[in-house]
Each structure stands twice: as C-alpha cells, then as structure tokens.
Amino acid sequence: MLSLRSALFRPMCSYSRHGSTLVLAEHDNATLNPATLNAITAAKAVGGDITCLVAGTSCDAVAKEVAALDGVSKVLVAENAAYAGFLPEKLTPVLLASQDQFKFTHIVAGASAFSRGLLPRVAAQLDVSPISDIIGIKDEETFIRTIYAGNAIMTLKSVDPVKIVTVRTTAFAQAEAGGASAPVEVAPGAAESTAVSEWVGQELSKSDRPDLGSAKVVVSGGRGMKTGDNFTMLYDLADKLGAAVGASRAAVDAGMVPNDMQ
C-alpha cells in the first residue's frame, strides 16, 4: 500500500507549470540600456517564453527595438506620464498587474540602480525573496552568485513560486537582433499608485568612459590613493585604456569619491 501511494503521489509532486520569464527593460524612453540585453540572455538560459515589459512616458521606439531581439516572445508596453523618472513607487503596480495576469515563473532585470530600487518592492508585494546579482544559472531554480564582497561563490536553490532575479551584466553575453519581430501589446492596466513621491528632475554627469556596471575594463583605486585629487591619475589611465574608474568601499567611505564609483 505504501509503494502504491508513493507511485500515485510522485507525479503530483513533480508537476510544475511551464516556465515563463518577464524581463524588465531599462531605458531612457529613446534607447535601450545594454543591461537589458544581458538580462534577456540570462532569461534564455532559464528557458521558456520570454516577455519584455517596457514602461515609460513615450517608449514606442524602445519597444520596437526590444521586439527585434532574439528570444523575445512578446513585448508589453505601458505608457503613462506618471512614469516620468521611472520611480519605483509608480512602476511597481505595473509589474504586479502583469504578474497577476500572466503568472510568470521568473522576473529578471540587469543589476543596476534602477532594478535595485524596483524589484525588492515587487518581491515584497509577492512575498518572495529576491535573488540579486547572479553570475550563473544551473537550472530554473538554481542560481550562482558571489558573496562576501566576491571572496566566495554561492550556489542557491529557490523554491519560491516566482523567482525575482537581477543579473550581473558582465557575466552574460548581450542578446542580439533575431529574425521576425515579436508582437507588441499594451500591458495590463495597473492600479493607481498611492505613493506621494513625485518626479522633479535630475542632473546627470556626462562622461565618455564606459558605465562602471558593464565595463569590460575597470581601473580601481583604494585607500592608498590618499585623497580624491589623486584619482586624477586613474582617470588619465582609464581614458587611455578606454576603461571605467571604480573605487573600493574604503575610498568611498573616506569621502574621496562619490558612492556610485564603488
């Protein structure tokens, strides 16, 4: 009787829904951030259908660019003046509405300030644990990430019904344009945000150097630089190498350079 019961129960335990991934597209309403291309490659490693969500104020051009990428099955577009500045408080209901309708098994984005502000909010609403900055994928439930400031590598398995993941952009190749474009649809309507935050504006520093998060070459300085002025030597070297400039936590905590260089 025990063996018969086990045989009957085993198929029920092994049943799982077909995998599907929602990739959050990061952009500026005009061009797609390269981090999204890495996230799509990671989504392909997970397997199943890939849907991309493009949310912004006027992002038709970005949606067409995403639809042409290899591996993308469908593109959801959410346009609203309230999404100016891409505030996490405004975009969280958009992701939740898409998740509620399509029941994705994975939600993926490139690791960046944008995703770090948005996806933990979504994870909290869905009552799951986010998995940050992965560098590898073993299967749809098992991921590889670094811990202890990169001094150790951890393999973890998530049993959450929805895996919310950010990927380290340098660990995955960038997706390329494929054949036929994927269909573009209007994203499900989201509940009106009750957040009191309001987008005012931004002041961006311009640099010809590559972005620190996705650069192939990084020149980094630490406490030994003594002062922020000495980082000029690293800037000059980075310009010759076509590299980004980073800094250790000690240098940032000492006030030598801004936090975004860590």
Explain what you see:
The chain is of the alpha/beta class. Helix content is 30%, strand content 23%. The chain is built from seven helices and eleven strands. It has helices at residues 2-14, 34-46, 60-67, 88-102, 113-126, 231-241, 249-253; strands at 20-24, 49-56, 74-79, 106-110, 131-139, 142-147, 152-157, 163-167, 184-186, 218-221, 244-247. A nine-stranded mixed sheet has the order 7-6-5-8-4-1-2-3-9, with helices on both faces. Strand 5 and strand 6 (142-147) form a beta hairpin. Helix 4 (88-102) crosses helix 5. The protein is globular and about 55 Å long.
Largest sheet: 9 strands, mixed
Please tally the helical runs, counting DSSP H or I stretches of 4 or more residues: 7
Spatial ordering of strands, largest sheet: 7-6-5-8-4-1-2-3-9
Strand content: 15-25%
**Proportion of helical residues:** 25-40%
The radius of gyration computed from the alpha-carbon positions, rounded to a whole number of angstroms, is: 21 Å
Distance between the termini: 61 Å
Count of strand segments: 11
Task: Give a brief description.
With 262 residues, the chain is of the alpha/beta class. It is 30% helix and 23% strand. Helix 4 (88-102) crosses helix 5.
Question: Which characteristics define this entry?
Answer:
262 residues, alpha/beta, 7 helices, 11 strands, 23% strand, disordered N terminus
Write the layout of secondary structure elements.
Layout: H1 2-14, E1 20-24, H2 34-46, E2 49-56, H3 60-67, E3 74-79, H4 88-102, E4 106-110, H5 113-126, E5 131-139, E6 142-147, E7 152-157, E8 163-167, E9 184-186, E10 218-221, H6 231-241, E11 244-247, H7 249-253
Parallel strand pairs: 1-2, 1-4, 2-3, 3-9, 4-8, 5-8, 10-11
Antiparallel strand pairs: 5-6, 6-7
